[in-house]
Amino acid sequence: MVDPTTIATNVTSFVPDLQPMIDIIQPLIIKLSVVLGGLFGLYIILGAMRVYYERRKVIILEDIRYNLNQQNLSKGIRHAGRRRTIKEKIFGR
User: What is the pLDDT of residues 31-54, one digit of tens each?
Assistant: First the structure.
């Protein structure tokens, strides 16, 4: 990341008449970079949390589906574990 103070130092070496304007703008640029950096970091953290919780949800739903399939299998009901082939669909079981 570029430090705003080094930019201001480099600019003042080229144009010394802009020093008062740079002194006014420099604190604003520093505050703005902290705020934007903080918001971006927060956005990244919230995105990572969302991915983590969505994966947990998918795992739980897969476990529920597995348990339902096992229960249906034990009772002899159709279940999602085994799909009927085209041959079975045409000629039956």
Answer: 878 777 777 878 888 999 999 999
Residues 6+ positions from 81 with CB-CB distance below 8 Å: 69, 73
- pLDDT number for residue 19: 80
- What's the predicted TM-score (pTM) here? 0.48
- Tell the burial category of 88 from Cβ atoms under 10 Å away from its Cβ (0-12, 13-18, 19+): exposed
Please state, in angstroms and rounded to a whole number, the distance separating the CA atoms of residues 12 and 40: 30
Distance, in Å, from the CA atom of 53 to the CA atom of 85, rounded to the nearest integer, reads 36
Integer Cα distance of 36 and 41 in angstroms = 9
Q: Give yes or no for a contact between 45 and 23, defined as CB atoms under 8 angstroms apart.
A: no
Quote the number of domains for the chain. Answer: 1
* Enclosing domain of residue 23: 4-91
